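Box S1 | Example of a co-folding query
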Amino acid sequence: MRRLPSLNDLFDRAAEAAVRSAATRIGRRRFLARLGGFIVGAGVIPVLPYAKAVAADDDERERDCDYWRYCAIDGNLCACCGGSATRCPPGSVLSAVNWVGTCRNDEDGRTYLVSYSDCCGKAPCGRCRCVHNLRERPPYRMGVNNDVNWCMSNDSIGYHCTIAVVVGLAE
Ligand code: ABN
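Box S1 (continued) | Returned holo structure for benzylamine
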């Protein structure tokens, strides 16, 4: 009695036929190039959701006012305004001057110098207002006071939001 082909056999035959036909139609070199692309692509695609998940975690941390880098911030988090903790949103410009804080990162127990800059030249973002005054000094020491619109030093003085860039270890 003749055995019915299994699903695996059918897949094997279909794949073989497709590969043979592609190899004769497009030539060996181009076929091998496409096969290489397919293999690399197939390896990368399963990684994408993971990479996205990691990026989403980072985004979420950067929108949280209690994120360690924001220990001396006073402003609206640019991460909630189309930018990130370190990047001004499109259409806004970094302030020419900024202020600094020293923040402890509980993950590694070390203290870092963090530079805060305002992003300017666009209507106020208004989202994620975040105010911490750790080690803030009175306004006569302006570089270590955060209750100032640092866009005043720019051509376009409108305040949009604030970013926090780690400059280095404070110790
Ligand atoms: N540096 C943030 C900010 C902007 C305007 C007013 C107060 C504080």
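Helices lie at 7-26, 28-44, 48-62. Residues 96 and 153 are 6 Å apart (CA to CA).
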